[in-house]
Design goal:
seven-stranded parallel beta sheet; Rossmann fold; about 240 residues; alpha/beta; about 15% strand
Length: about 240
């Protein structure tokens, strides 16, 4: 392993990579030598993100992909295979939130959040697992949340999606560990991103996207005989 570029020769696919946590993870993996494929729904935002990585000398490809649509996911993974080769690292980061009392949510809001946060991670994993199984190696990292372990008023569908993602992560880990594929979940508390305003919290005391990227970097450079099932992240000081 190259100490300066420990991920040299590997391909990392990061969903929700246009900003915030996803872009920070893509940048960190790229700096570690990986060829990075990042995607998001918004073509303009993902293009800016990809160009910023290329400006650093990171080998990146980028494009629009709605992770809730199986056809788009399959087409994106095929394109990554054609350009960079099979995926070694999948980071399921694409996510969204709608915050309101559960009894006031519309069915459309419920479906949008569950389809993005939970079904999207399943679809992307399903698309890359066969190639990982064929090679007997791979990392799948699902960006969940402490909301997947804790409840709060107005968090009904968001918490449900993140609890579900933790359940999916644990079951996939058991399904795939015998094939050399390690599945981990990362559960940050509030992170200072564009995701939500976090009213009343001091942004300087909140977790930062680079903090999450640091944990992902740790997970993908573990010794091969072990894996970390889940990581809970909290700021040193309460914001």
């Amino acid at each position: 392993m190259n100490a300066e570029k420990p991920l040299a020769g590997q391909v990392a696919l990061v969903t929700g990579g246009s900003q915030g946590i996803g872009l920070a993870i893509a940048r960190r993996l790229g700096r570690m030598g990986a060829r990075v494929a990042l995607c998001a729904r918004d073509t303009e935002h993902i293009s800016r993100a990809g160009e910023s990585l290329e400006a650093e000398g990171i080998r990146a490809m980028y494009g629009s992909c709605d992770v809730t649509r199986p056809g788009e996911v399959e087409a994106w993974v095929r394109r990554v295979n054609e350009v960079f080769g099979p995926v070694d690292i999948l980071v399921n980061n694409a996510g969204m939130g709608v915050f309101a009392p559960a009894h006031k949510l519309s069915e459309a809001d419920w479906d949008r959040v569950m389809d993005t946060n939970l079904k999207g991670a399943w679809l992307c994993s399903k698309a890359v697992v066969p190639q990982m199984m064929h090679r007997g190696t791979g990392h799948i990292i699902n960006i969940s949340s402490l909301a997947g372990k804790n409840t709060f008023a107005g968090g009904g569908v968001y918490c449900a999606s993140k609890w579900g993602l933790l359940g999916l992560s644990g079951c996939m880990a058991e399904d795939l560990r015998a094939h050399g594929i390690r599945v981990s979940a990362v559960c940050p508390g509030s992170v200072q991103t564009e995701f939500s305003p976090h009213a009343g919290k001091d942004p300087q005391k909140m977790l930062q996207p680079d903090d999450v990227a640091h944990v992902v970097a740790m997970l993908v450079t573990q010794s091969p005989q072990s894996f970390v099932s889940a990581v809970e992240m909290r700021p040193t000081q309460k914001p």
